[in-house]
């Protein structure tokens, strides 16, 4: 059975996303499935992949996904169809005028569990938006004509830093043909923060207002002092930190590596695994802090110094984990994936 070539269209702004996806399907003579057709499904990404797999392979498909779709789950759904579908493009439609507002939203929404259809833990809208940008193969800017040239250049450079492998396009009345990429695979390293940590970060566009840097620190972080630094970041003391992600260790939980996840006003630390449960042939996910930070008008030296101040001092480090356990810890209690499985 031949694979069906699929172009998925995502984005935070529904009307612009729908108009673009519909027009793209018309111009490329592809079948079209709108987000409204997927709205009743507990798993829109999986539903879209199934619908696409039964389409005529000769025609191909354009699928519009709702704003709440998780980019990684979308990619997983289309690459898990036993070679019946090939995701050859992930287009993210970005409203250039409102992008920064979208990334600083403080709203949350419940995703649904694919098996039960029951609402799962709340997920930040801003995180969903930025992940769609990060994993896109093509990013299409709409409403860009409303911005002054200098401001538009800054927005485009920021997006290029967030998603350095994506092609950037300006939307015009005539929708341009989306150039197919190599088909997506389950493993993806497209996000800018991943490139920063991998050492191959090379965005196509730059701007004096936009910067990115990597922060490394082997010492665990004092959770109370870290929270104070996060408050200073939110206040804009070091510039506008739009996105930061990576791995970290809290002194009060030194045996657990955590995923650092931040965009706009949203911040979370999610446990990845317990060192005590690693097999003999498994390596540590992270020793200390390894973070990628991307933003506007950042002061990297002062931000790095503030994070260094949150790390354990020489006397604290020498005191050992028993003493660390007594530190004030304002972060939520963790439950690792292994704990949940048990």
From TrEMBL:
Residues 210-311 form the CobW C-terminal domain. SUPFAM superfamilies: Hypothetical protein YjiA, C-terminal domain. InterPro entries: CobW-like_C, Zn_Chap_cDPG_Synth. It holds the Pfam family CobW_C. SMART domains: CobW_C (SM00833). PANTHER family: COBW DOMAIN-CONTAINING PROTEIN DDB_G0274527, ZINC-REGULATED GTPASE METALLOPROTEIN ACTIVATOR 1. This is GTP-binding protein. It comes from Microbacterium alkaliflavum.
């Amino acid at each position: 059975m031949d694979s069906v070539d699929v172009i998925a269209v995502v984005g935070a702004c529904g009307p612009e996303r729908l108009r673009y996806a519909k027009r793209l399907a018309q111009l490329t003579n592809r079948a079209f499935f709108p987000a409204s057709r997927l709205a009743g499904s507990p798993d829109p990404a999986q539903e879209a992949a199934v619908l696409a797999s039964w389409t005529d392979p000769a025609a191909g498909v354009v699928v519009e996904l709702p704003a709440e779709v998780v980019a990684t789950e979308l990619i997983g759904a289309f690459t898990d169809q036993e070679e019946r579908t090939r995701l050859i493009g992930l287009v993210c439609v970005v409203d250039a005028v409102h992008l920064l507002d979208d990334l600083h939203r403080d709203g949350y929404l419940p995703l649904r569990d694919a098996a039960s259809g029951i609402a799962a833990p709340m997920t930040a809208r801003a995180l969903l938006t930025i992940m769609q940008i990060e994993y896109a193969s093509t990013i299409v800017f709409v409403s860009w004509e409303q911005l002054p040239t200098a401001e538009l250049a800054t927005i485009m450079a920021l997006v290029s830093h967030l998603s350095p492998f994506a092609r950037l396009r300006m939307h015009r009345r005539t929708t341009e043909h989306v150039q197919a990429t190599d088909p997506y695979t389950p493993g993806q390293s497209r996000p800018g923060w991943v490139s920063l940590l991998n050492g191959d970060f090379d965005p196509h566009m730059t701007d004096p207002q936009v910067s990115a840097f990597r922060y490394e620190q082997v010492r665990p972080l004092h959770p109370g002092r870290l929270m104070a630094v996060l408050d200073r970041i939110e206040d804009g003391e070091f510039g506008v930190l739009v996105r930061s992600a990576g791995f970290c260790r809290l002194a009060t939980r030194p045996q657990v590596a955590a995923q650092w996840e931040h965009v706009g006003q949203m911040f979370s630390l999610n446990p990845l695994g317990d060192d005590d449960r690693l097999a003999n042939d498994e390596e540590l996910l992270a020793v200390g802090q390894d973070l990628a930070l991307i933003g506007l008008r950042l002061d990297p030296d002062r931000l790095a110094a503030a994070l260094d101040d949150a790390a354990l001092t020489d006397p604290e480090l020498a005191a050992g984990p028993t003493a660390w356990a007594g530190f004030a810890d304002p972060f939520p209690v963790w439950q690792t994936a292994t704990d949940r499985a048990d």
